[in-house]
Amino acid sequence: MNYTEISYEVLGPVARVCHNRPKQANAESETLLAELDHALECAKRDDSIRVLILGGVGKHFSAGHDLTDPMSTRARLTAAEDIWQWESEHYLGNALRIWDFPKPTIAQVQGACIAAGFMVANMCDLMVAAEDAYFSDPVNHSLGAAAVEVLVHPWVLGLRKAKEILYTGQRITAADAKEWGMVNHVVPRAELENFTLKLANQIAAAPPMSMRMLKRSLNRTADMMGFRNSIMAHFDTHQLSHASDEHKAIVEAGMQASMAAAKKAQNAA
Fold first, then answer.
1. Mean pLDDT of the chain
2. Is 199 contained in some domain?
3. Average pLDDT of 49-57?
4. What is the β-pairing status of strands 51-56 and 105-109?
């Protein structure tokens, strides 16, 4: 497949898949998500690939879902049941396919990792961040919706910090994210790709079948603690928040203006 909105590299036993819309701050369009799903399936079926890196080309990892994508099927949906079904497949489904990917995954993050970008990166097993990386989910403030579709935040930050960043819409730095346990390593931007690839190769040196079984056990442990049930429960809550008068008023007033105001507030914080 000739990808137009992601890049796919094979580096020995490692596949590196990157958002590749740098002019749009790697906002995730419908096409990008479809290409990401295709790339995941290719890497899963390729027995020579033992580790997957998920990153972004250019200044940012991802600014989140592309809410201005004129070709998006999502933008043409109006019935609640159609929106639920579409987001269940594309947003929730895409995130869970990253979580369920049978081989180890590493998020390689620089610059903005916002909203849906936060969601996608945190479905990976490990995260390496550049010193300039920052993370936020301002959806409650900017769109009047109950966070993004996949509420992975308390699982990677702890409940107190998850509440803080979601209630305030604030940014957190890579250093803070590491201190709180969300990020494994923080490195200078110039070293990000090499450091992440070195880590991936170290993981790839382990026997692949035992690694798959180890990941399976670790993910099952999270599921036994309620991970998947909580993710599924929040998705329905998120859908309900679409029907609120608050959300409808923001949509009618123009989401771009609302998001710009939220970004200004973040920068001032």
1. 91
2. yes
3. 98
4. parallel
CB contact at 8 A, 60 and 110: yes
**Contact partners, residue 31, CB within 8 Å, separation at least 6:** 4, 5, 71
The DSSP letter of residue 46 is: -
> Is there a contact between 6 and 54 (Cβ–Cβ < 8 Å)?
no
Please report which confidence band the pLDDT of residue 250 belongs to, taking 50, 70 and 90 as the band edges: confident
φ, ψ of residue 187 to 5 degrees: the values are: -135, 160
Query: Which residues partner with 55 through β-bridges?
Result: 18
What CA–CA distance (Å, rounded) separates 154 from 86?
25
Q: List the Cα angle 123/124/125 in 5-degree steps.
A: 120
pLDDT of residue 260: 62
Q: Which amino acid belongs to residue 141?
A: H
CB atoms within 10 A of CB 198: 12
Task: Identify whether 1 is part of a domain.
Answer: no
CB-CB neighbours of 101 under 10 Å = 20
The model's pTM is: 0.91
| Alpha-carbon distances, residue 82 vs 117, 125, 238 (angstroms) | 23, 31, 14
Q: Provide the CATH number for the domain around residue 67.
A: 3.90.226.10
User: Taking residues 190-197, what's their average pLDDT?
Assistant: 98
**Can you list the positions of beta strands (E) in the chain?**
6-11, 14-19, 51-56, 105-109, 112-114, 126-130, 134-136, 172-173, 185-187
CA distances from 160 to 153, 172, 228 (A): 10, 14, 20
Report whether pLDDT(178) > 60: yes
What is the count of structural domains for the chain? 1
Cα of first residue to Cα of last residue in the chain, in angstroms, is: 43
